[in-house]
Every structure is written in structure tokens, then in C-alpha cells.
Task: structure prediction
Amino acid sequence: MSTEQALGEPGDLIWFKSSYSGSGGGDCVEVAMAPGVVHVRDSKDRQGPALRFGADEWSTFVAFARTRLDTEA
Result:
């Protein structure tokens, strides 16, 4: 994962983008963790809006996504 310090954001979030994203400018998301909350934004529009999810909801989503990837591989 690569990281970028997001200046000017509440709590100075540290954003992560998957190393699988590549550098071709494709569709990528970045996430930043805060106590009990996960922030998600479009890596191509870093000044744009970010979504916030509860940590439990994010964990459920990631587990589901992994399951789907494993069954499609």
C-alpha cells in the first residue's frame, strides 16, 4: 500500500491506496482509518467528497469482497 498524508482534513488522516491500483490512472479508491470510522474517497478526486463507514460495516464489506474474489478466481 502507498500512503499520503491528507493535510487540512480533520485529524490529518493518512490515506492508503492499494498497491494493486497501478499508476495508469484507473478507477481507484483510497481509505483512511480513524477511531471507529473508515473514510473512503476517489483517488482521482482527492479534494472531492469522502464517504465514512463505521469500522464494523467496513470490515463486513471487505470480508464480503474477499469472499467474492476468492469464488471468482
Notes: The longest helix spans residues 55-72. The CA atoms of residues 24 and 40 lie 20 Å apart. Residues 2-72 form one domain.
